[in-house]
Amino acid sequence: xxxxxxxxxxVQSDDLFHPLSQSPIPEVRERAKLIKEHSHxxxxxxxxxxxxxxxxxxxxxxxxxxxxxxxxxxxxxxxxHALLCPALRRANEDEHDLRSGRTFPEFDFPGPQHYDEAINxxxxxxxFYTRRxxxxxxxxxxxxxxxxxxxxxxxxxxxxxxxPYRPGRDLTPAGTQALAxxxxxxxxxxxxxxxxxxxxxxxxxxxxxxxxxxGYLPPSVWAQLSHLFPRTPFxxxxxxxxxxxxxxxxGRRTFSSGLSITLTDKLLQEVTPHLTPFDxxxxxxxxxxxxxxxxxxxxxxxxxxRSMVDTKCPIxxxxxxxxxxxxxxxxxxxxxxxxxxxxxMHPTESIFRCLKPDVNPTDLSExxxxxxxxxxxxxxxxxxxx
Length: 386
Description:
- The protein is of the alpha/beta class.
- It has helices spanning 26-38, 42-47, 71-76, 78-98, 124-130, 139-159, 173-187, 219-228, 268-275, 298-311, 322-336; strands spanning 58-59, 66-68, 191-192, 198-199, 204-209, 234-239, 251-256, 259-264, 283-287, 315-319, 341-349, 358-359, 367-368, 373-379.
- It is built from 11 helices and 14 strands.
- Strands 7-8-6-5-9-10-14-11 form an 8-stranded mixed beta sheet.
- Strand 7 (251-256) and strand 8 form a beta hairpin.
- The longest helix is centred in the N-terminal third of the chain and has 21 residues, at 78-98.
């Protein structure tokens, strides 16, 4: 029987740029409508001292986004807009590529790393090479892949013995100590019982607090974390009101002997009693771009951060941009004021941030990258040495 013909592509790989409102893809046209409804002309806003928010009806011919209220204001704003235009154009083309209908061989990820094969965490390029990723033949493909892998590989880059983050340069003495404790657990091997049975150790638990997009990642993406530590079982807890995707139920799912994922649609402080006891040698927290510093967010986050600090386990945060990280760090400092807390990692640019820019549709001047920055704290631990 002859193979069925594949569906025609909505856009060709050499014709990815289209003004958003004239895109052949309905979802992209909807994005143009969203921007026009919620964004604003920066020239009008500046001239009114921030009092006016005029809808951006004019689409920039270079990036295809609705950026200004008129061509006149677009021309007037050329110097400032030129700083944003390349990233906006890339976002335009990336969106058309993802929805073009083509196959994506770059999403065929490698399996477990062999014990004798070294991994280089110097940057994305060396990581992809030593992990034997295939089909990453363009900057666009790498952007698509890192949009997914930035989450598990950001975690792995801190935990792995080949971590690129160095004591004294990136990590504080407390950070070096905290990660050494986790790594000592990761280095342990499974035990052979007297009945010659292989006994899996207790899993390393990673609590992803305030989970949003992370809950939508396919298990094959999170499996890349367990593939890097084939001797260690991981149990990921994705916690937060938005952690459970539509159509799924909260609860635990086991995908392999090395990976289990539990989805919980409650606040951390509501489920903490069910997760105790916590062990700094096998438990840690991650907050991916939580937006703690945004107006009104403190009430949501203060209880969770205090609960995490009380566990004495490592807590790592990321942010979308330098401004986002700075805003969140200041709010975290205010929340932990008066608590006995030590810094594990002062804010630094993450080596494994997403390579693909994200554009805020309500303000096109806000362009960020998933997990651009990285920093960490923990409740101070007192060791008694006899």
